[in-house]
Amino acid sequence: MRHSLSAIWMVARREFIDQFRDWRIVVPMLILVSVFPFIADDTTRIAINFMNRYGGELILDHLIPFVVLVIGFFPLSFTLVVALESFVGEKERGTIEPLLSSPLEDNHMYLGKLLVGITTPLVFSYASIGIYLILVSRRDVAFPNAYILALIFLLTFAHAVLMVSSAIVISVQATTIRSANLLASFVVVPVAFLLQGETFLIFWGNEDVLWYAILAVTLLSALLVRLGISHFRREYLLGREIDTLNFKQIGRTFRDRFVGQAKSVFEWYRTELPLTLKQLRRPLMVILGLAMIAGIASYVWVVLEAPVYLHLTPERISELRTSVSDNPSNLERLGEELPAAPVIFYRNIRVTVLSLLLGLLSFGTLGLTVFMANIVLVGGLLGGAQLVGYSPWLVFAAGILPHGIFELPAIFIATAAMLKVGAQLVTPQSEKSLGEMLLLSLADWLRIFVGIVLPLLAIAALIEFYVTPVLIKLAFPYL
After folding, report:
1. 415 or 100: which carries more pLDDT confidence?
2. Nearby residues of 287 by Cβ (< 8 Å), 6 or more positions away
3. Domains of the chain, residue spans
4. How confident is the model at residue 338 (pLDDT cuts 50, 70, 90)?
């Protein structure tokens, strides 16, 4: 352990020396850190005067934490170029060969670069925040308490790890500084959107909600660090001079993985698809466990806590029962107005594909969140039925189970396949590159989607439109 830390620090010290003797890095950052807080302070003064004149206490109370969060983000975005050039920049300058030929392990080099990449922007960011807080403390405005400031400092740290770990992954995979800088938008833009969501939490949410943002960003950062370490190979970095898009090779690799050794559709279903399903046993166990926990927790919360929030009274329950009684007749009119079965089928496909895309961006975590949200809705629906006096078991048997026999397994299997894609990306594979792993994982997901999920969702959509409303009327004839 001590040897590893010493090796990591050796790489980090070399990087620190290279950075701080380059005036093109130090001088712009010092100017940014020293000037931007004064601009933000002046903007704060104008905003305070405006809101004191026309009202806006909600914004005024949370203005300083919001500005602190923005000030922390700007140095991170500007110093991202240091992390982007950590490997590819040295490669273009011809200074990386001595480092790669040293007896250091791959992990030592990667973590040393990562340590410097995080420390430098974080120091500038915290310095900029400190200057701004000193300036704003002189103004007649409510100064944020230590708790909210601590949360923002933690969130800024999580942002730094997220952006730098993403940038170093790009630096390892890119072959030129130009391509690395162009790919930087895939780091800055998503984090900027994330910053907007966190701003919403600051203005309209409780401060404690920021802990969820900190936890989510930290988890994603850890997965990105794991991704970089898993796919960093010095020989791969040295042996690659230029990237070319060989669409024929990409298509051939994808097709070979999707089709496998099958010669016909029947043989594909009999031999290839079961092999892919066998690999989903562990993800399916995780998905089933999470679904049970989320569904039961949602049901219990609605039954026990929702009456407090909704102020349920006998009159209110009667109104809810009346509202529910209108839905079966609406289901009958729906079939006359639009082709509802195709609409239901398309909606389920859209959610499944969206879950995959979100999973690719977050190594499965956001896709898993979409799945959990669906299960929570089911549990909440059954809990709501219990509150208004209907049997949740009868509601489940008549309103969910008929099409759920096909739809729920399709959703579970698709989510497990999505989770497997994310897990494979962060799993060390010395014989395959990151791009190859992504391509093969997507081919496996498409196998599951085409071979199992699409047929099950099609059957579920037909049953949900033509059979489920009839069963609901039979089960609840008094509606």
Report:
1. 415
2. 371, 412, 415, 416, 419
3. 2-239, 247-475
4. very low
Nearest C-alpha neighbor of 109 from the set 255, 4, 186: 4
Distance CA 54, CA 62 (A): 16
Closest by CA to 110, choosing from 2, 17, 227, is: 227
pLDDT band at 331 (very low <50, low <70, confident <90, very high): very low
* Residue 242 pLDDT exceeds 70: no
Q: What is the pLDDT of residues 11-54, one digit of tens each?
A: 777 777 777 776 667 777 777 777 878 877 777 777 777 666 65
Specify the pTM.
0.75
Return d(Cα 22, Cα 120) in angstroms, integer.
13
Question: Which residue has tokens 């969501």?
Answer: 197
3-state secondary structure labels for all residues of the chain: CHHHHHHHHHHHHHHHHHHHCCHHHHHHHHHHHHHHHHHHHHHHHHHHHHHHHHCCHHHHHCHHHHHHHHHHHHHHHHCHHHHHCCCHHHHHHCCCHHHHCCCCCHHHHHHHHHHHHHHHHHHHHHHHHHHHHHHHCCCCCCCCCHHHHHHHHHHHHHHHHHHHHHHHHHHHHCCCHHHHHHHCHHHHHHHHHHHHHHHHHHHHCCHHHHHHHHHHHHHHHHHHHHHHHHCCCHHHHHHCCCCCCCHHHHHHHHHHHHHCCCCCHHHHHHHHHHHHHHCCHHHHHHHHHHHHHHHHHHHHHHHHHHHHHHCCCHHHHHHHHHHHHCHHHHHHHHHHHCCHHHHHHHHHHHHHHHHHHHHHHHCCHHHHHHHHHHHHHHHHHHHHHHHCCCCHHHHHHHHHHHHHHHHHHHHHHHHHHHHHHHHHHCCCCCCCCHHHHHHHHHHHHHHHHHHHHHHHHHHHHHHHHHCHHHHHHHHCCCC
Instruction: Please check the confidence at residue 335 and state whether its pLDDT lies above 50.
Output: no
Q: What is the distance between the alpha carbons of residues 457 and 331, in angstroms, rounded to a whole number?
A: 19
What angle do helix axes 106-136 and 63-78 make, rounded to 10 degrees? 140
Q: Looking at the chain, how many residues does it have?
A: 479
| pLDDT for position 456 | 92
Mean pLDDT of the chain: 78
Tokens, residue 142 = 């409510």
Return d(Cα 146, Cα 139) in angstroms, integer. Answer: 18
Q: Give the torsion sign (CA, 240, 241, 247, 252).
A: negative
The pLDDT tens digits for 192-207 are 888 878 877 777 766 7
pLDDT at residue 52, as a whole number: 64
Which conformational region is residue 14 in: left (phi greater than 0), alpha (psi within -120 to 50 degrees), or beta? alpha
